[in-house]
Amino acid sequence: MVEFQVFFFPVMAHGHMIPILDMAKLFASRGVHSTIITTPLNAPAFAKGVQKSIDLGFRMSVKTLEFPKVDGLPEDCENADQITSAMLPDFFAATRMLKDQLEQLLEEYRPNCLVADLFFPWATDSAAKFDIPRLVFHGSSFFATCAGEQVRLQKPFKNLVNDSDEFFVPNIPHKVKLCLSQLPPHQRTEEETVFTKMLNEAKDTELRSYGVIVNSFYELEPEYADHCRNILNRRAWHIGPLSLCNRSLEEKAQRGKEAAIKEDDCLKWLDSKSPHSVLYVCFGSINKFPSKQLHEIATGLEASGQQFIWVVRKGTNDKESEDWMPEGFEERMKGKGLIIRGWAPQMLILDHEAIGGFVTHCGWNSTLEGIAAGVPMVTWPLFAEQFYNEKLITDVLRIGVAVGAKEWVIGTGGGNIKSEAVETAVRSIIVGEEAEERRNRCKGLKEMARKAIEEGGSSYSDLDALIQELSSYPSSK
Predict the structure, then answer these.
(1) DSSP states of 60-100 as a string?
(2) Sheet hosting strand 278-282, strand order edge to edge
(3) Helices 194-208 & 88-96, crossing angle to 10 degrees?
(4) pLDDT digits (tens, 9 = 90+) for 195-242
(5) Vertex 126, ends 120 and 131: CA angle to 5°?
(6) Same fold, 5-145+189-244+452-471 and 255-450
(7) DSSP3 helix / strand / coil % (the chain, rounded to 5)
(8) Tell me: the pLDDT tens digits for 252-288?
(9) Which helix (H) or strand (E) covers residue 33, if one does?
(10) Rounded to 5 degrees, what are φ and ψ at 25?
(11) Are 345 and 313 in contact (CB under 8 A)?
């Protein structure tokens, strides 16, 4: 019997690697030999998850491609989390140079399918050379895909002048407004950059690919799953929330990088708190706020009177990482606020009953993890499709409160939200009648998410249908 094998090829950034590992584990649990393709310095990030699946009797493996040396990138730089936004064109130029190595692996192993990241548009043609179906992994929601595509095609902002000018997103099921400054700069100016060329190529090759695999579940955004398939004509399968394949405390604690706090210390602190009384504050793996914004957040959190866990990205040196802190802040917050400097075991924290709210940058991984944990959100989008995810949270699902972020900015930015806005949003997500209503809606979504991945659920069934379809694909094996 010929082995059924799927290759998974994420872009080298933790926000993409983490859900791809979950996806590979999920496929492996259904009898598929899941092979993750990455580079030598990124391989350790997959090691524990892969070994855990192997120990359970599933078939998983990792194969590596040598990351090319490129002028403009630091030595041993193989992950987007290590670079500045100015280095992105060089980084993606380097990933394109992996093409020949990938094709050698495809020719040698002839997998039944290649699941490749959106940011590898060239992978569709590479897979086609060997008659292997390529699935695109977006890493975003149906809603963001639909809204973003309509804005890209219809350009409803083209007559706007001021950054604060608003427009409705056209041709989608809900009335959703954005302002001009929430769009990426290249979209406002229609400037052609290395990045926009790649995105346009990605759209083109997506339409020629076998289809799209989505980390979502049907009950969360049914109108947009249907819109994606019926209006945008995408072949799409929803198989999420992918994070829910991690069921044990150990799996949740080890997801992503090594945490900057011991699992037991974190849980002990949370166990001492009442249900729904703690706010979790985290802005993802890429963004690093300037000191003045960190100071405003600290001041707002203290003024709100709420308990919190706050994940602060480390600076390049000790002085830089601490110069934002109000004098005496950490002493005053002792017992009330826990600051984690570095990586946090996010899933472990969100799933704890003490957590009553989540201040998030609205990256799709964090958004869906918050939904799966049943936690209301304070939305603070920064870049990519995060402003669309905010609208899904606040306007469509009505499970969040916006802090008021209006500026699309990547890397080191987002420093214009005042402490008063932080205080107001934080209090409204934890305290009051509306907070309770949001919490109840979140509880319903949490239950739907868990049912979706169980046998007979929407995501479980969609994955079954996808594997069945791929197994009957007339490949050259």
Answers:
(1) EEEEE-PPPP-TTS-TT--SGGGS-GGGHHHHHHHHHTTHH
(2) 337-341, 307-312, 278-282, 355-360, 377-379, 400-402
(3) 40
(4) 778 888 888 888 999 999 999 999 999 999 999 999 999 999 999 999
(5) 130
(6) yes
(7) 45, 15, 40
(8) 888 878 888 888 899 999 999 999 999 999 998 778 8
(9) strand 33-38
(10) -65, -40
(11) no
> Rounded to an integer, what distance in angstroms lies between the CA atom of residue 145 and that of residue 406?
20
Contacts of 319 (CB under 8 A, 6+ apart): none
**Residue holding tokens 């201040």?**
359
Nearest to 12 by CA among 40, 50, 49, 38: 38
- Secondary structure (DSSP) of 210-269: SEEEESS-TTTSHHHHHHHHHTS---EEE---GGGG--SHHHHHHSSSPPSS-HHHHHHH
Let me know if domain 255-450 sits in CATH 3.40.50.2000: yes
Q: What is the DSSP string of 368-400?
A: HHHHHHT--EEE---STTHHHHHHIIIIIS--E
Q: Which two tokens stand for residue 53?
A: 């699946």
Structure tokens belonging to residue 61: 């493996």
- What are 150's two structure tokens? 């309509």
Residue with tokens 């990519």, as numbered in its chain: 384
pLDDT average, residue stretch 341-346: 91
Contacts by 52-56, CB closer than 8 A, 24 or more apart: 52/25, 52/251, 53/25, 53/28, 53/29, 56/29
Nearest to 120 by CA among 43, 49, 38: 38
Amino acid at 327: E
Would you say the pTM of this structure is higher than 0.90?
A: yes
Which segment of 158-172, 309-323, 324-338 scores lowest on mean pLDDT? 309-323
Strands 177-179, 166-168: pairing kind: antiparallel
Extract the tokens encoding 73: 């990138």
CA distance linking residue 81 with residue 72, whole number of Å: 15
> Quick one: what percent of the chain has pLDDT higher than 70?
96
The residues annotated with a catalytic role in the active site are 16, 117
Per-domain residue ranges of the chain: 5-145+189-244+452-471, 255-450
- pLDDT, the chain, mean: 92
Q: Which CATH class is domain 5-145+189-244+452-471?
A: alpha beta
Cβ-in-10-Å burial (0-12, 13-18, 19+) of 271 comes to exposed
Q: Answer with the residue of higher pLDDT: 190 or 255.
A: 255
Residue 426 scores a pLDDT above 90: yes
Give pLDDT tens digits for 392-419: 999 999 999 999 999 988 766 666 899 9
- Rounded Cα gap, residues 212 and 374, in angstroms: 26
Report the range of poorest mean pLDDT among 87-91, 103-107, 452-456. 87-91
